[in-house]
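Forum > Structural Biology > Help requests

Title: Can anyone predict the 3D structure of AcrR family transcriptional regulator?

Hi all, first post here. I have the sequence for AcrR family transcriptional regulator but no way to get a structure on my laptop. I'd be grateful if someone could post the structure tokens.
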Amino acid sequence: MQAKRGRPRNLETQNAILDASYQLLLESGFGSVTVEKIAEQAKVSKATIYKWWPNKAAVVMDGFLSAAAARLPVPDTGSAYKDILEHATGLARFLVSREGAVLLQIIGEGQADPALADAFRTRYVQPRRLEVRGILDRGLQRGDLNPKADFALITDIIYGSIFYRLLVSGDRVDDPYVEQLVVQAFHGALSES
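Reply #1:
Sure, ran it for you. Structure tokens for AcrR family transcriptional regulator below:
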């Protein structure tokens, strides 16, 4: 979230707005959420929302991310392989849940809404890629991973495959599938020492 100049945000008001946007998103989907409905449910003015967010897509995305953050912690087990397996499995389980279905809906809506697509990339995709990169960098520092491994490709193979199944093929996404992805993606990436 990027705050504009002026008085700092009132945390209680901000949380009410984020909660309202998330609840409306769960109840009726992105297309039905409006800034007017968010303002009404949060008991704030539309001007307050627009003072803190540039558009509906940004506030809805922040509401979703605020609610989802606790469900997707970044593990640190001491093993890059185990951390990625735990992280990817947690994401897959989340995506097949009711709340995760909302994220898939956001991706779909983003195909016709450039502001939403941009908010999704900047507020969700880029931070998640940085999380994964952090896990892989820790593994490299510990000597778990081959320094010649292509971390971006590993990320794309695992996480791109999960989203492909959910959004395109409709094939099952479960724990054994995620484990097989991680095994295949890490083939050749693990340190030989």
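Residues 71-187 form a domain with the Tetracycline Repressor; domain 2 fold (CATH 1.10.357.10). Residues 166 and 173 are 7 Å apart (CA to CA).
Shout if anything looks off.
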